[in-house]
Structure formats: structure tokens, C-alpha cells
Design a protein that fits this description.
This protein has two domains: 32-225, Growth Hormone, Chain: A; 235-439, MFS general substrate transporter like domains (Growth Hormone, Chain: A, Up-down Bundle), CATH 1.20.1250.20. The protein has helices spanning 3-16, 30-34, 36-56, 59-69, 74-77, 80-89, 92-100, 106-129, 132-164, 170-194, 199-222, 237-244, 246-250, 252-263, 266-269, 271-279, 289-313, 315-338, 347-373, 376-405, 409-428, and strands at 433-434, 437-438. It is built from 21 helices and two strands. The chain has a two-stranded antiparallel ribbon with strand order 1-2.
Length: 439
């Protein structure tokens, strides 16, 4: 790297990071410490590109609208979120040990980014040349490729981040990536709003842009300066997961938590049916896609801080409140549809905004409660158990919801409202945790 270029990188790093001394590192090697300025920018760029692409290929809204527009069956549309979420969780049981065997895990993330780009490209091709059930099947296949690739990236990223970025800068770099990628999604939403007559063209263009973004992210990430790490100690995830299921019997609170979290997946599973309801059914064009995407993005931006403050006091109460608020948002959705307001430019985005606020609370509350309920020794085990069981529940709930959708999107939304309310009831029976210990 030339001296002027190195100086420019250091200046940008100093402006973006919270580090007063770019060479004062606490838990990474001296080599990684010296490379931290350029690694910081590569992380912020690659992760931001990946998060931006995630927003452009959002299964809950964008792909739901696309499949509705292409006339795919409602049951297929209902499988979008389960495939994406379960596909991101369950493959980790099989890939974690192989990734652990790599001395430099940046290559796993790089290949995973290319895999996500391939999945987006498959979805793009389906959007351009196919329609009906065939388009739906190919889109689901592309999403499966994307989800499995995402699971590999998820396993690899935390380790690479820990090896290349010092402890005091990790939250800053991931937060920076999240912030600028959120602006990309908001710009996408505004484009859909102001150029609504070209929705189909904008969505297909976004799919192509997402594929390109993931390819670029892989290229940027491949340039990280990563030390070689230990390759031993990788366990068989599937074998361990099966053996660890005994904790569900031995710890009733873990079983109750997993059940509550499983029921609260309703907040993630419901949005595609809201899109179908607002559209009027498969094949009908949804006028307010941009408003829905904007509502979802804004909900993520405005709610995390509030839920975080509440979780500091009681993550159990956060789970209760999110279940109740999620159920209320779904009931509101059904009420708006019953009043004939499904096509309103305000009604459905408002309902989705409230539902996504609840969903953000579920995500934050479940993570905080799981971290607080056990000590360091069992935290990884309990996380693996929860992810495994939730992956199975997501698939089962998605299939159940898809079957319910055969009776209409309203029926599926009613089912998810009941699930969310039941999740709040189950969470009510959890023990109250404060300062990481039980009362």
C-alpha cells in the first residue's frame, strides 16, 4: 500500500472509529492491530453491502410482493420466511465444524457472499422470465441457496471480526455498516413510492443490484488481513445438538423460553400474508409496496433503543409486551381489511410498522433473556439448542401457515395473532431475571 493511500485510510478510520489510538489493541495480535484501519473499512464496506442486499431481497415484503405479482400460489408465498430463517439456522449444525477447520475463515464468508449473490441472481432470472407456480418454485430455490449461504457467513463472521477488529471497535464497525445500509433500504423504499408506476422494474433492478452487492462484498472481504487461527476443536454440531436436547428436560425454564420464542416467530411469519391481504390476492398488484418497505425500515430504526432500555429492566416483560403488541397489530390488520381499508396508503403500512416494532422487540428480548438466564459455560449450548429447535418450529409453523393460507390470508393472520398472544402468555410464566441472575 502506498504511503499516501495508507495515510488516507488512517484518516478515514480515525474519523469513523471511536479509537483514540489506532495502534493500541487489547485482544488482537500486533499484526492485526497494525492492519486494523484498512480492516475496519473493509468490514464496514462488506457488511454494509451485505446488509443492503438483504434489504433489497427482503422475503417478508419484497419477495412476497414479487411472488404475488407473478401469480405464485399463496402456499408458496407463505414458505418464504420459513425457508429464509430456518435455512439460516439449521445448516449451521453441519457447517460449523468445517468452517472451524479453516485457518483463515474470511474465505468462508467470501464464498458465502458469492453464494448469496448466486441466490439473488436465480431469483432475478425467475422474476424476469417466469410466472405462476414455476416462478414461485424457482424463487424459493434461489432463496434456499441464499439462506444456506447466509448460515455459513453467520458462523464465519463473528470469528473473523474477533481476529481482525479490536474489542473496543467491533460494535462501532457493525453499527456503521447497519446505519449506512439502512439508508440504502430507505432510499429503495422512497424510490418505490415516488416511481410507483415502475414497481416491477424497480424490484427486478433491486434484485440484480443485490446480486452485484454480494459479489462486491465477497471481493472486499477477501482482502482482509487475517491471521491464521487454530483449526482444532471443531465439534460435530448435529451430534452435539441431539445430545444437548436433554437440557430441555432438565431445565423447564429453557423449555418454556424456547416455546415462547417459537410462538413469537409469528411476528416474522406474518408480513407476507399482510402483503397478500393488502394486494387482494395472488396476481394483484400492491400499490403501497414502497410505503410498506419504508414502514419496516423505520420501525427497525426507531424501536431498537426503546426495547433495549426496557430489556435492561426486564427482558421477560419485553417478550410479553412484544407478543401482545404483535397480536394487536395483526388484529388491527384484520380490522383494516374488514373495513375495506386494505388498499389504503396509510392503514396497512401503519399496521406493518407496529408489527415490525413488535418483531424488533422479539429479536432483542429473546437474545437478552437467553444471555441472562445462564452463565458463560452453558450459554453457547443453550444458544445452539434454541437455534436448532426454533429452526424446526419455523419450518413447521411456515407449513402450517401456508396450509391456513389456502383458506385465505386473513385466516393465516388470525392464526399468527393467536400464536403471538400465546407467546406472551408463555413468556409471562418465565422467571424474572435481573443483572444476569434469577430473583
Amino acid at each position: 500500500m502506498s504511503t499516501p493511500h495508507r495515510t488516507a485510510v488512517a484518516q478515514v478510520y480515525a474519523a469513523l472509529s471511536a479509537d483514540d489510538d489506532g495502534r493500541s489493541c487489547r485482544d488482537i495480535s500486533e499484526t492485526a492491530c497494525n492492519a486494523q484501519p484498512q480492516n475496519f473499512l473493509r468490514h464496514a464496506s462488506a457488511l454494509g453491502l451485505s446488509k443492503s442486499a438483504d434489504g433489497l431481497v427482503d422475503p417478508k415484503l419484497v419477495l412476497s410482493w414479487l411472488m404475488t405479482h407473478l401469480g405464485a400460489p399463496a402456499a408458496m408465498i407463505g414458505l418464504l420466511v420459513p425457508i429464509r430463517e430456518a435455512g439460516s439456522l439449521l445448516p449451521q449444525l453441519f457447517t460449523a465444524a468445517r468452517i472451524r477447520a479453516l485457518a483463515q475463515r474470511k474465505w468462508a464468508w467470501t464464498i458465502a457472499a458469492l453464494g448469496q449473490g448466486l441466490g439473488a441472481a436465480i431469483i432475478f432470472i425467475a422474476a424476469v422470465i417466469l410466472d405462476g407456480a414455476l416462478a414461485g418454485g424457482v424463487i424459493l430455490a434461489g432463496l434456499a441457496v441464499l439462506a444456506v449461504s447466509r448460515s455459513v457467513a453467520s458462523v464465519a463472521y463473528k470469528d473473523v471480526l474477533g481476529k481482525t477488529i479490536d474489542k473496543g471497535q467491533r460494535g462501532t464497525v457493525t453499527g456503521l455498516a447497519g446505519s449506512w445500509s439502512a439508508l440504502v433500504v430507505i432510499a429503495f423504499a422512497l424510490t418505490l413510492i415516488f416511481f410507483s408506476d415502475a414497481r416491477a422494474l424497480i424490484v427486478t433492478g433491486a434484485l440484480a443490484l443485490a446480486a452485484l452487492a454480494w459479489v462486491l462484498a465477497g471481493g472486499v472481504f477477501a482482502g482482509l488481513a487475517e491471521d491464521k487461527g487454530a483449526t482444532e476443536g471443531g465439534a460435530n454440531g448435529l451430534t452435539d445438538a441431539i445430545a444437548n436436547l436433554r437440557y430441555l428436560r432438565e431445565d423447564p425454564q429453557l423449555a418454556r423460553f424456547v416455546l415462547a420464542r417459537g410462538l413469537l416467530t409469528a411476528t416474522a411469519l406474518a408480513p407476507p400474508y399482510l402483503v397478500m391481504l393488502a394486494s387482494g390476492g395472488p396476481g394483484a398488484a400492491l400499490e403501497g409496496l414502497g410505503a410498506l418497505v419504508l414502514a419496516s425500515a423505520l420501525a427497525a430504526l426507531v424501536s431498537s433503543y426503546i426495547w433495549g432500555r426496557l430489556a435492561d429492566r426486564s427482558s421477560r416483560k419485553v417478550l410479553i409486551l412484544t407478543g401482545l403488541s404483535g397480536a394487536a397489530a395483526l388484529v388491527m390488520t384484520l380490522a383494516f381489511a374488514g373495513l375495506g381499508w386494505a388498499a389504503s396508503p396509510i392503514a396497512m403500512p401503519l399496521a406493518l410498522f407496529l408489527l415490525m416494532i413488535a418483531h424488533q422487540g422479539v429479536r432483542l428480548g429473546r437474545s437478552t433473556y437467553l444471555v441472562d438466564m445462564v452463565g458463560r459455560d452453558l450459554r453457547a449450548v443453550y444458544t445452539a439448542i434454541a437455534n436448532t429447535v426454533i429452526g424446526v418450529i419455523l419450518l413447521a409453523s411456515g407449513i402450517f401457515g401456508a396450509l391456513a393460507a389456502l383458506a385465505g390470508a386473513a385466516t393465516a393472520l388470525g392464526l399468527f395473532a393467536v400464536m403471538a398472544a400465546a407467546g406472551a402468555y408463555v413468556a409471562y410464566g418465565l422467571k424474572e431475571l435481573r443483572d444476569g441472575s434469577e430473583d
